Structures are given as structure tokens and as C-alpha cells.
Amino acid sequence: MKFLSDNTAAVHPRVWDAMRAADAPDSGYDGDALSRRMDEAFSDLFGTECTALWIATGTAANCLALAAMVPPHGGVVCHREAHIEMDEGGAPGFYMHGAKLMLADGEGAKLTPQAIERVIDPIRNDVHQVQPHAISLTQATEYGRVYTPEEVARIGSLAQGRGLGLHMDGARFANAVAHLGCHPAEVTAQAGVDVLTFGCVKNGGMNAEALVFFDMELADVVRYRRKRAGHLQSKGRYLAAQVLAMIEGDLWLDNARAANAAAQEIAQACGSRVFHLVEANEIFVVLSPAEQATLRAQGFDFYDWTAPEGAPGAARLVTAWNTDPDHATALARAISAL
Amino acid sequence: MKFLSDNTAAVHPRVWDAMRAADAPDSGYDGDALSRRMDEAFSDLFGTECTALWIATGTAANCLALAAMVPPHGGVVCHREAHIEMDEGGAPGFYMHGAKLMLADGEGAKLTPQAIERVIDPIRNDVHQVQPHAISLTQATEYGRVYTPEEVARIGSLAQGRGLGLHMDGARFANAVAHLGCHPAEVTAQAGVDVLTFGCVKNGGMNAEALVFFDMELADVVRYRRKRAGHLQSKGRYLAAQVLAMIEGDLWLDNARAANAAAQEIAQACGSRVFHLVEANEIFVVLSPAEQATLRAQGFDFYDWTAPEGAPGAARLVTAWNTDPDHATALARAISAL
Amino acid sequence: MKFLSDNTAAVHPRVWDAMRAADAPDSGYDGDALSRRMDEAFSDLFGTECTALWIATGTAANCLALAAMVPPHGGVVCHREAHIEMDEGGAPGFYMHGAKLMLADGEGAKLTPQAIERVIDPIRNDVHQVQPHAISLTQATEYGRVYTPEEVARIGSLAQGRGLGLHMDGARFANAVAHLGCHPAEVTAQAGVDVLTFGCVKNGGMNAEALVFFDMELADVVRYRRKRAGHLQSKGRYLAAQVLAMIEGDLWLDNARAANAAAQEIAQACGSRVFHLVEANEIFVVLSPAEQATLRAQGFDFYDWTAPEGAPGAARLVTAWNTDPDHATALARAISAL
Amino acid sequence: MKFLSDNTAAVHPRVWDAMRAADAPDSGYDGDALSRRMDEAFSDLFGTECTALWIATGTAANCLALAAMVPPHGGVVCHREAHIEMDEGGAPGFYMHGAKLMLADGEGAKLTPQAIERVIDPIRNDVHQVQPHAISLTQATEYGRVYTPEEVARIGSLAQGRGLGLHMDGARFANAVAHLGCHPAEVTAQAGVDVLTFGCVKNGGMNAEALVFFDMELADVVRYRRKRAGHLQSKGRYLAAQVLAMIEGDLWLDNARAANAAAQEIAQACGSRVFHLVEANEIFVVLSPAEQATLRAQGFDFYDWTAPEGAPGAARLVTAWNTDPDHATALARAISAL
């Protein structure tokens, strides 16, 4: 019973079906019918005109987006624990040609206008210091926290006022929207987001994410950069198929709801052990080494985590679109029984 | 009846099967059982110890390999019409951080030791000129020409003598080996090749190539760089599955033989129209605009090509692993009848 | 008697005087009075509003200018024998983050609209090929050839029509203008040049060139990039002093005229030995090894050069602002006497 | 009476003399007699074989050194307030092609082995996280603090144990050695430093620093990179002259001692106002806005500074090699009188 990560879950049957259907011959790269349908499909989904490009990984998607907004001599504000800072092996430095990540603090890996200002306000407007050109948010955050539309909009407003681009890393965007119950545009286009990394891989896809450009001019640069990064696959239709399967018929939300529901069931059982509010599909809990051992002995797999100060130990539990409800219930019970 | 390119052909059923079988849960990135089997599988295939990494595209594979051999201030010798120079959207400059492609000439896009020396010998050994650090060959070339083991070995010998790395872009390596009928090591490891881009996508794969390192130390750098380039997919097992399916049971050779055979049948019919010796699965033929129109009217799709001097026009015909033999026969007859 | 290169000549006394005068305390970087006078001084010189920044070397100046016009995924057209391609150790690749030099041909290292079109017209407007974003000319060229105002204007017109930036490497701009006898704006601002590398070092300066921006917005990026490249010297006033000393009182033209006159005297003596029309301060002459030895035995220093086809040998003779007229006369006589 | 910065002070007369003497013709770039003398001169100075290259600015010198030790996918540990992080306009990202600065804490901008370990120990040894490849110290630090030989040696030992390179930014190295009274090798070569940026500009030079390589292999890469960065000046002899003038006859120490002495005199007067121990030529003092105004009204120029918590205000006072002792005394008295 695996609660290690959502990023290795099996591919959803409807995604498989869509991929198989893409076997029919068509044009290469993104000249095929499926790839060409993406702009319209995402414009419909968001209720606003946008451009969408498939790309195999979130790391590449995030970094291509940022590189379109930030010149090599610029910087981008992100949370100190953001994926782009912690877990992308220096990809932002590569894609942005040496531009700088400017690290802000915030509870639950969430940024606030104040936290961003604490980073950018002390920067002298001279050539000796790297100047900020963009902000990158993660929705849901590395700790499974979710920005409300109002929270994003306040940051969007700051970005606009300072002339900064706004990127959203939505590796778990579906989980966030499923939690909020809002229209996806409310936390993106309407809140000032310029580009969204719309995650599919953690949510039932195989190897395709979508970059959604509400500022459509940015896509023109990214088209060239995607090829230049070796990310323009010749059989792109198999990626487009995945992405379209995810958004058509709301599979993305159904999958996210399933993962979130499993997380909620477990979170209830954890009670005050939880140290980051559970809003998406990740649960961070205080668990002593002995308790962890007990759970593992019952067949539950999960990662150790850094415990909050004073706690005897901690773990991260992640649910996925295909988490067996019985497994979630079993884990909830096992934790209650500790 | 499509003879446009092999890079959009459907995925082979055995590749599909292998991918479906990879749906079972396993570790992320390249920690799964399939990814961990790659070194051994390729070591068996080549009869020599090597390291193999999957990567989604040939462009990324080529450039990651080169970046491990060439420092940012260095250069790599390749043919003036090599894919890395002509068709990768500047990816070598990106991955190698500005290192330089040094362009050599040669019939059929083939390099020779002499052609390479004509490029590197005039370079003064001082800091004002970029120094060569590697050579990149394409097997088969952009014009479907194949290097014999002796030809590669002579270049390998030059590379070794000059302290240069040797990379082989094998997007159509299978077609070359199928043509040569040699052991794959004879044109690679035994001939001085340090890294091979082992192509699968044009040969029945979906979106996985393999980088095969005979100089295994280079792989250590590439592991980091692959992640840094956003090419370390979290569900890497679906890529490993494709690659393993290609090499296990010699599917790679069977597929290439089928493509080559179709090409030979068409080439026979083309006779003296052919202006690059047909050794793999590409046929370059003199065809006047009127002749092209005649063929297209019969349902044959192919690309116009730049005609040799004095010729009235030309076309490129490409076969693939799944080219219907009846289509190849039909095209051969239609050309004979012109 | 040295005719090796103009790039090691002594510093002109008036430049020394200006540097000494800069010893007085002032603000750091380019906040001092001298640096702040540069915009106005160059605007006066060119008769049009422009922005000017000092920079220690021509290589850095050229590459900073190009990097402001060309994105990392783009390219710049230059002559196959341009300094940026041949002699800058890969600096363009570094400064432009991997952007590509696109090499054109042309007699005497001069570009023409036709030669440029032969490079850019075959480039498909798709993401697989690097797209041109700028053109770089060298005035005078590597072979001492000079573009007339009309020739530059034709290229400027092409650049504008194609949406390309236009850079001029003017390491020997003074020699070119001295030869043409025109107003400096006629071959730059009025002919469509966006940025000029205004050379001083080869013309009596120590280590300061000026980047002159007729497209002044480009300077905003270059200010940041100059610092980022470690080229914003803290005692910038000593560089500004050099540049201002060169242009005030027309020292730049006086020095260039002296060098050109010496070259003309030698060229006259060379007669049909000359294989590049002598328009600036470089003379390329057919000289057999024996003749070279004869001259060297008489105390003349110069570089061997690649001989034109069929010629027994060749040499490059370069004069400088401080070439002793007696030395020039002596060399002219010695060549006549061969 | 200026106490703003040492980086704009006049050039020392002996440096001027050396530069004038370099006017005699010689080879270009670093082929001249002065440049060729640098290795020996620095080997003598440090009492150990080393290689030394001139370079115009400390920013370029630091970044070239780091780029020789750190691959683009790596990282370098430095203090959170190091010049390379705070004041070089992103130059490290440019020169290191996107490698990462890893920020450590420490009083007075000094690193300790413990502070470094707190940064590098949590880094998992996998491809998802950037791995450290070097450490960069600043001697004296941004706050005028000096590492003792033992302190450097402890960090050198850590570096060696972890396989990390060790770079020392010695923009104010002379002030540090003058303070320590030790042999310069004791805080560098003997303590495990691989490369030293030996500052001259702040200490009476015009625009030349020296990169001193105790790990001489690193110099081979830097030679190419210096050219590639546009920092190989053609009249390099004027830079070599500056550097040699600084170290010959111990001018570097004499100048530093003068600056340090002036700083000590002022520091004495400041008493408990001082909030960073004064060991070199910078004094950080608590001064209320009113006190600052009083001093400025008496003709003293200096920069405001961020005050320690609870303090009413602060200022930074910097002395230089040419600080008039009368000015220092006057400032000391004025502060005493506050």
C-alpha cells in the first residue's frame, strides 16, 4: 500500500485509450490534429483565449515558461522550498541562462505579497544587483497548501504593479482546483497569472504536461525554446492525446477529487498530528520512528520527513488518482490505532 | 501512401505491450526495474560493458552526449548538413553553453578523416580560436548513407590521436546496422565511438531513445544534465519499456530490415534517378515537377527536395518499419512507369 | 621596424594626459563626470542623439552589443572571416548564450545584401532552424576593406526589411572614416546601424572602446550585461578619459589618417603584389619566402599570411597611428627593390 | 574628505610609472615580457610555484576562477553577503553557465566549517539537487573581517575532505595580510586555497587584478575563458605593469598598511559604536541620522548603512591607500566629539 508519491502512479485507462487512438498516422511534431486542438481545448476549459503547448515534464515546462519571462541577467522570486529551487537539479539556471532564483519565505511554502516585497524591496535599482522580472507560485504548494483566488489575485496585483511576470507551477493544479471548487480561471487568468504549468503526470498522465499561456505572446518564444531544449517530440500526438484526455470530460478534476478525498480520510484520522493543513493530496504528519515502523510493518510505504521542531519524527503521505479507497481507509485506521 | 518521414510512424505493437506492462507500480525516475535493466541489456547487445540512459528525443540525447565531452569554450566537428547543425533549433548551443559546431564537408553527409583534418588543422592552438574537443558522426547520415566499420574506425583513430571524443548520432543506427549486417559493436565500441545515440523513435518507438556510453564516465555527468534539462521523466519506466522492447528479440533490426527492404525495392525502380546511394531507408531521386505531380495524383505523399545541379527537380522518399509492402511496390511501379 | 599589428602600439600622449587628469577623485563605475559626458560627446560627434558606454575590449563590446539584439535561440549573420567568428575564442557563443553565427561569403570579407540573403533565405521559418535576428558588419574589414555609405545603407535597408538588428564592428572604424572622408553618421546612424563598436585601442588608446547605441533602448540591457560580464570597472573614469581624448579634437581621425597614409605609401610600392585593395591600414601582399626573408633581414617585422591561389607566399603589413614615416618609406623602398 | 570607498582612489605613482614604462613596443595580449614575468613574480611572493593571470576586474576574476572549478550543473558555497552573491549583477550565473550559489551564514560575513556543513550536509546526493563543487571565501570579508590562517586551513581541510575546490576573493587581500602580519602563503597555498583573486584596484591599481592559481591546472581553462569573456586585452602589458608594480617592493603591503592604520585611528575614536571588529580598512559604526548630518556638515563623505537591530542608524567608513592621515585624524576627532 503505497503512499510514497503521486508521480509514479499508473496511467489512467482513458489516457491509454487516447494514446492508442493516436496511433493513426498524422503530421510530426505539433502539426497533428491533436496538438492543433490544444489551444481551443484549453481556451474552452479556462473560458478565455489562451495558447497551450505540451511538454514532457514539469521541470521543463516550468523552466521554459520562466525563461520566456526572465532575461539571463534577471531574477525570479519563488518560495525557498519551491520545486524549482529544491528539486529540479539546477534546471532554472540552465533554461534561464544563469538568471537567479530569489528566495522568499512563507508558511506552508506559500508566498504572500509581503514575503515577496521583503525580497524585492531591498534590491537597489542598479546594475550591481540582479533585478526581479517574475514571480513563480506553486499551486498546490510543496506542502499541499492551496492559494485561494483572492490570494493569487493579491500577488497578481503586486506583479502587475511592479512589472513582473507571474508563473504558476501547477504540478498539482488539479488538486488545488478540486479543493477550491472554483473555476480554474479564477486562480489563474483572472488573478493575473501569465503562464500556468498545468500538471497531468501526477494526475493520471504518462509523460505530458501542458503549458498554458494567458499571455499568448510568451508562447512564441517558448515554441523555439522547446525545440532548442530537445522537448519537441516528433510523435507529439501521443502527448497531445494525454493532455486532451485529461481535460476532456473533466477527468483531471475527477482524478484529483479521488486523490484529495483519500487524503482527507487519512487526514481526519491524523488529527493534530498534521502539521500542514491538508488541502490537496499530501499529508505531513508527526510520527515517531516507532510509529513509522509500526505502519510499515502493516505494509504501508511512505517517505520520512523532517519533523517540526520538538516533534519526535515525521512522515509524508501522498495519495494519487488511483489510491485504492480501501488502502486509504486502512491507513486511516492504522494511524488512529497508534 | 505516405513516404514523408519515418519519424511519425505508429508505435510497434510489441512496444505498446511493453509500455502497458510497465503500468504496474514501481519507483520513480530511473529507479524502476526496467530502467535498471538497461545497462545490462545494452552491454549484452554490444558485447561490451556499457551504460545506457533513456531520453525522450534524439535532439536531447545528441546534445547531452556532446555536452559531456565538450566544454563551453570548445567545439565539435560535424558535417555541414548534420542534424545537430541544421535541424535542432540551436540545441547544441544551448546544451553545450555556447560551444561551437565546426562544419566539415563530405559526400552524402559523410565525414572522412581528411575532411575533419581540413577543419581542425588550420586552427591555431591559441586562446583566440575555439579548439575542437569532439567529433560527431551520423549513422546513417542525413542522406541515408552508411559508414562501414573501417570508415568509422579511421575516424575513431583520428579522434584518439587528437584527443577528441567521438559521438555517433544513430537516429537511424538500426537501418545502418541492418544494411551492414555487422555486429553493432563493430561500428561503435570497437571503432572508437565513445557515446552512441541509439535511435528508437524512427524505428517503432514512441518517445524514447537510448544514450549508450562506451566511455562510461561520461554517463555520470549526463545523469545530472538530463535532470537539469527536464528530461528525467518521473515515470521513466514507460521509456525504459520502449527501449528494452526494441532491443530484446532484435525488434530493432527486424523493423530496420523491413524499412530498408522497402527502400531497396523503390530504389531499384528509380535506377539512375537516385543521387545518393540508397543504403538505409531514404531515397533521394530526381523527379521533375510534372513527375512529382503524377505520383502525388496517384496518392503518394513525399517531400520535395533540392535537386542536384542540372536536374529538373527532386524528392525525398522515406520508408518506415511499417511501410506497407504493397505501397512500396506500388510506388516502385509508379516510378518505373514515369 | 614593426608592421605586425596596430593592436599593440603605444598609447597616444594625449590619451596619457587625459588618463592622468582622471586621477582626481570622482564617483565609481560610470558615475563620474567623464563617463557621464560620453553620451553628449558621441551625440555631438555623430550629430544625432545616441548613448555611449566604455568597455575595455572590442571582443566584449561586439558581443555585448549582439547579445542585446539576439536572443539565445537566435542567430546573427556575419562574414565567414569576421573577427567574431575567427578570433574571439567563442565569445559570441558565451555572451549570446549559445546563439549562432551564420556565415556569409564576400570578397575582402565584405558582406553584401545578396550574400546575406544567400544565408538567410534558405532558412525555413520554423522552430527546427535557428532564425536570424541581426547582421554584423566589420568596418574596415579584416582585410582592410571599407564599406561606402551606400553599401552600408543597402545592408541597413535589408536589415530593416527583414526585422534584423544591425551591428558594426568598428575596431578600425576610424581608418574607414578617414579613408571615406565622410561624416561618421553617414556610414552608421544614417545607414541603419543600430550599434557601433567604436574602436580606440588600435588607434592610440590603451584599453577602452566605446559602444555607441543609435538604438538607445539597447543600451539599457547592455548596462546590466556589462556589469554581469565583469566589465564595469570601478575606476571607469580612466576608460572614459581615453575615449573622450580620442574623439575630442578629432584625435581619432588624425591618428587614423597617419596610419592610412603610411599604408598607402607602402601599398604604392607593392603595386600588383597587393591582393586586397588597400583602403585602411592593412596591406596584404604576395611575397615569396625568399622575399620575406630579405625584408626581415633588413629589420622589418610582419606576419606571414595565406597566399592567394598560385602565389608563392604572402604577408600582412599593418601600420599604426605611430608608425614612423621613415620606417614606412624604408619598407616601401625595400619592397620596390625586391 | 571622502570615506566612501577604496574602489575609486587614485592610481599610485609607482603604478603610473610602471604603466608609462610599458609604452615601449612589445607583443600583444599576454605575450609581452611583463605578462610573462607574472608567474615568477607571484611564485616568489608566495614562496611556492603558481601561475598568475591579470584580469581587469575582481568580478571577472572571481567568476573565471569559479567557472574553472564548478561545472554548469554544480554549485559553490559562499556567504549570504558575499560580493559574488550581492554585488556582481549575476556574473557568477553568467560565467558558470547557471551554476548555483549556495548561501551560508556567519558573523561578519565569515564562513566556518560548521556553517558550510549546514548548507551542504542536507543536500541529497542525487540528480534532483545541485551538488556543491567549490567554496568561495572573501578575505577580508565584506565587513572588513579577516580569516586567520587557522580559520582558512580548517575550511581548506573541509574542502579537501569533501572534494570541493577552494577559492578566495581577495579584493582586499592586502589589507587582510597587512592585518595578520603573516606570510601570504599561510592564508592561501598552505591553507588549501586553490585560486586567489589578488586584488590591486582597491589598493592603488587602476584596472588590473591578478588571479593566482596554486592549482595550476585550473589556469589552463581560465586562459581560454578569459579570452572568451573578452577580458584578454591586446595591450595586456599595461595590466601586467600594474600588478607587478604592486607586488614588487611590497607596495601592496605598504598601501594596505596605510589604509588599515587610518581605519584603526578612526575605529579607536568610534569605541563601542563599531559593530564589526575593525581588522582591515572598513569601519561599520552606529551613527544616528543627526550624527551623520553633523559629520557631513563638516565635510565628511560616507555611505549610510543598515543599522544593527535597535540602533538609531549606521554608516560605513572606508579608508584607502591614499587616505590623507589628517583627514583620518579629523574624522576620528569629529566622531569623538559627537
Automatic annotation (TrEMBL), chains A, B, C, D:
<feature type="domain" description="Aromatic amino acid beta-eliminating lyase/threonine aldolase">
    <location>
        <begin position="3"/>
        <end position="286"/>
    </location>
</feature>
<comment type="subunit">
    <text>Homotetramer.</text>
</comment>
<dbReference type="InterPro" id="IPR015422">
    <property type="entry name" value="PyrdxlP-dep_Trfase_small"/>
</dbReference>
<dbReference type="InterPro" id="IPR001597">
    <property type="entry name" value="ArAA_b-elim_lyase/Thr_aldolase"/>
</dbReference>
<comment type="similarity">
    <text>Belongs to the threonine aldolase family.</text>
</comment>
<dbReference type="Pfam" id="PF01212">
    <property type="entry name" value="Beta_elim_lyase"/>
</dbReference>
<dbReference type="InterPro" id="IPR015421">
    <property type="entry name" value="PyrdxlP-dep_Trfase_major"/>
</dbReference>
<keyword id="KW-0663">Pyridoxal phosphate</keyword>
<protein>
    <submittedName>
        <fullName>Low specificity L-threonine aldolase</fullName>
    </submittedName>
</protein>
<dbReference type="InterPro" id="IPR015424">
    <property type="entry name" value="PyrdxlP-dep_Trfase"/>
</dbReference>
